[in-house]
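Below is one record:
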Amino acid sequence: MTVARCLADGLAFPESPVVSEDGSVVVSEMAAGRVTRVCADGKTETVARPGGGPNGVGRLPDGRLVVCQNGGSRFGLGPWPYDFPGSVTIFRPLGPAENPVTPSVQIVDTDGTVAVLTTEFRTRSGAIQPLIRPSDVCVDKYGGFYLTDGGTTSGRQRTITGLLYGTVEDGLQEIAYPLEMPNGIALSPDGTLLYVAETRTRRIWEFELAGPGRIRRARGLTTVPSGGALNIGGADGVSTDPRGRVLVATLGAGGVTIFSPTGKLLGAIPVDDPMTTNVAVSADGYRLFMTLASTGRLVVVDDWPAVAGIFADRG
């Protein structure tokens, strides 16, 4: 379907690729409670075992990892996106884990040691609230990090959550509320804009930052097209490239949808897994990595702008 090549398979619901200078990629494996390094030759090695359901991963300036621990899930084959005629059957989370852990932000040291940084955050009114289901994270140049708390659905009720900012020293502070199932998150190359995906609405928010953890302005940047089974789809992981383009892992249709910094739809790179959970771009801007969760793969697209038809050369 595309020129995406498989770098690694057999991964247990991979998420949140973090590209290293040596060409390796760190991913979380939500269904295995594990953080894994995929080497440039495709070999894998365990970085850490946070347990539960490690989701978003970010690298701090000192080399440690910050991990969104969502508490865990029970995985198996089930209908997606809803249990309606016309859905597809895929490997996915089916409900709460049999032995959940407390949702938290975890820190993974360079030797693989895992520690809980916090299980709570301070709301804008000053109240202390527990984390519900931390989803994704991105680290800024100051060593702080932006984090989405995705919330949960139980029966006919869903928790409404928001956007958080934190540091290792000071914990987490809510900076935007409410958001509808916030998920993927990424900073612009200059660090002045923050992009957040709402999975259910397919909306991409743009937050203009006045400083670390301080929002000056907010607007809806764009909406990811629907697609896939039942023509529903959703917006999952988000990344940016050195030119400021916004890349969104697109549920349903599968693959990545690409937007200009102004929100204009530029193109898409489809793949054969409707559960494309996250995306990352190499530092040179020309290799694109996708986590295909339901089929357990990490794939890479070389010279992805040309593949997407955005431009044909490197100029």
